[in-house]
Design goal:
Blueprint: E1 2-4, H1 9-14, E2 18-24, H2 29-45, E3 50-55, H3 60-65, E4 73-78, E5 81-88, H4 93-102, H5 106-114, E6 119-122, E7 125-128, H6 132-143, E8 148-152, H7 178-192, E9 195-198, E10 202-206, E11 211-214, E12 218-221, E13 224-227, E14 231-233, H8 241-244, E15 249-250, H9 253-256, E16 264-268, H10 272-281, E17 287-292, H11 301-308, E18 313-317, E19 319-327, E20 330-337, E21 343-348, E22 350-353, E23 357-359, E24 389-391, H12 403-421
Parallel strand pairs: 1-3, 2-3, 6-12, 7-8, 7-13, 8-9, 13-24, 15-22, 16-17, 16-22, 17-18
Antiparallel strand pairs: 2-4, 4-5, 10-11, 11-12, 14-23, 19-20, 20-21
Helix pairs in contact: 6-7, 6-12, 10-11
Length: 422
């Protein structure tokens, strides 16, 4: 694997045969999550396909020319021709493999697949998810000498790592960058001795057998499982959103706000995340239009006061997006006035969406008792309806979802498990 600059693009990529190019950025959790997958796959496919990386922030003109709108973005080339398939944002290892396989003869793909050898590892506890709840559980378990593995599809930190500032975590007088708070939590748990298997694809979860398969070839077995999978941003489900996701529509201000310097953006939402992240985006963008379905924001009053005092930000209350269309370098957001039903168009350089979250339970949602909103029910020890399975953090049914409450959940589950295993 080789890192290149724009000056080497023609030689290394256009004249390089079969090539996969990774445009990455700094302070970008999805980029960090992709890095080990990219390196691992370069070891498997590197004899047939060239793997190269390019630092997007230092090669902006080329990135924009190639249509790269967010980080990370993977582009594929075959003898100088850019292939239509691209990946960006939270990129799955399986998706990359599928694309790489399509670039090679079937016989060669079979040969490469033979190099992947299945493996089995055993632990006392598997923690699914490396946000504050999972990290805290890992810390308490390893301090109790419980053999624990922490599994996550991204890097440790969860949503905290993509939050630009945390001002209400106890012990810090000054607001802390989210990535630093999550980094410190992660390092503390790692140094204690918890095993990390992060930036992986979770292929299968069997809660009854306490088995998890990652990256399609490694089976992890345990006596107990802690579910700390958190939540993911809700999608609007309107035309154009899926097609423009990662290509002008973003769900992470920390990841992508820096690419909208002196540009105009639309922010959808009106809760704490939308209002606070709009203020952060205003450090870069020249103009922000907030689109919110209600006649007032639901964010905390302090955040609202700060937003209303920001001259860069204007708001369309009682409006909802109905579609997104790219026209040249601009994104057209069609919005409906919920009172008059009139449709109007907003022209911008990008769109950020913050409309709430949903629990990440797709691989096991039919196995556990859930509340009416789809969150996992637990008892006071964080036990779920299935024996030996616990759940902590934002994924569980509770009134408040904060970093501090997730940390408390992780503490309780770990102590309960350690006593049970003792």
């Amino acid at each position: 694997m080789k890192e290149i600059s724009s000056s080497e693009f023609e030689k290394e990529v256009l004249e390089g045969g079969k090539v996969v190019l990774d445009f990455y950025s700094t302070e970008c959790p999805p980029c960090e999550a992709l890095a080990p997958k990219f390196e691992n796959l370069s070891n498997l496919y590197g004899k047939d396909i060239k793997f190269v990386k390019m630092f997007r922030q230092q090669n902006k003109p080329l990135a924009e020319k190639l249509g790269v709108k967010s980080s990370p973005t993977l582009l594929f080339f075959d003898n100088g021709v850019q292939l239509p398939k691209t990946f960006s944002g939270g990129i799955k290892r399986s998706d990359i493999i599928h694309q790489l396989d399509s670039m090679l003869p079937a016989e060669r793909v079979r040969e490469i697949k033979k190099l992947i050898k299945p493996s089995v590892s055993e632990y006392d506890v598997i923690i699914l998810g490396a946000g504050p709840g999972g990290l805290t559980a890992g810390l308490y378990l390893c301090q109790s000498k419980v053999n624990t593995v922490l599994v996550d599809i991204a890097l440790p930190g969860g949503q905290v790592s993509t939050t630009h500032s945390v001002s209400n975590y106890p012990g810090f007088i000054e607001p802390q960058p989210g990535y630093m708070l999550s980094h410190n939590m992660s390092e503390q748990t790692k140094q204690c001795g918890t095993v990390y298997k992060v930036a992986v694809d979770v292929t299968m979860i069997d809660l009854e057998k306490k088995e998890v398969v990652i990256d399609e070839f490694e089976t992890i077995k345990a006596k107990k499982i802690i579910i700390a999978t958190g939540t993911s941003p809700n999608l609007m489900g309107v035309p154009g959103e899926k097609e423009l996701k990662g290509k002008g529509i973003s769900y992470c201000a920390t990841c992508d706000a820096k690419y909208f310097g002196d540009k105009e953006v639309v922010v959808v939402g009106g809760g704490n995340s939308a209002v606070e992240e709009a203020d952060f985006i205003s450090k870069f963008a020249s103009k922000i239009t907030m689109v919110h379905q209600f006649d007032a924001f639901t964010a905390n009053k302090q955040a609202q006061e700060k937003l209303f005092a920001n001259p860069k930000i204007s708001t369309l209350f009682e409006h909802e997006p109905r579609s997104f269309v790219r026209e040249g370098d601009k994104i057209i957001t069609e919005v409906e006035n919920l009172k008059t039903k009139k449709i109007s168009k907003l022209f911008s350089d990008g769109v950020f969406v913050f409309i709430g979250m949903k629990p990440n339970i797709e691989l096991f949602k039919d196995k556990l008792e859930l509340d009416k909103w789809g969150y996992i029910k637990t008892n006071e020890d964080m036990q779920t309806s299935m024996p030996g399975v616990y759940a902590v953090g934002d994924v569980i049914s509770k009134k408040y979802r904060q970093i501090t409450t997730a940390v408390a959940d992780g503490t309780i589950a770990a102590i309960a498990i350690a006593k049970e295993l003792d």
